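Tip: read the tokens left to right.
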């Protein structure tokens, strides 16, 4: 079978990456241990395991840069954000920053689906607001925004 791009496998990879990032935030476990634990349970026929690993490792190894990029668009510090929404924001900011092949609208839409499925009732509204602003900075060329977030 051709191992081409599969949007459903990517969506599942994001779901697992969200859970792994959340676990890391709550328990502070070793990234490699968390990755191994998830990779042992992932059905590689239904999940893009490579993308899962890229999201997990990329997000957690660039936390300072990601948090700084997000906090500039929030009225509170990252640690004050609900842990699920925090994990979604971090994951999505990494995708916006480093996964340029994924259109920014897809990144935001996937984040909203994660927030609706895993987050608090209206958490998706907060996630949408922050990522919409962050996309204008992280993907200024793609969004048609100026670097200062102009509209």
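Filled-in amino acids:
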């Amino acid at each position: 079978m051709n191992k081409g791009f599969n949007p459903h496998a990517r969506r599942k990879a994001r779901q697992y990456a969200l859970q792994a990032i959340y676990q890391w935030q709550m328990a502070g476990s070793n990234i490699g241990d968390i990755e191994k634990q998830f990779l042992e349970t992932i059905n590689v026929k239904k999940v893009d395991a490579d993308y899962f690993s890229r999201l997990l490792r990329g997000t957690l190894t660039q936390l300072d840069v990601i948090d700084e990029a997000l906090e500039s668009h929030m009225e509170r510090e990252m640690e004050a954000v609900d842990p699920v929404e925090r994990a979604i924001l971090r994951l999505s900011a990494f995708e916006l920053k480093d996964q340029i092949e994924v259109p920014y609208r897809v990144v935001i839409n996937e984040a909203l689906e994660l927030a609706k499925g895993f987050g608090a009732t209206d958490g998706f509204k907060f996630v949408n607001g922050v990522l919409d602003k962050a996309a204008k900075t992280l993907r200024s060329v793609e969004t048609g925004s100026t670097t200062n977030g102009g509209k």
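The radius of gyration is 15 Å. The domain at 7-143 is CATH 1.10.940.10 (N-utilizing Substance Protein B Homolog; Chain A).
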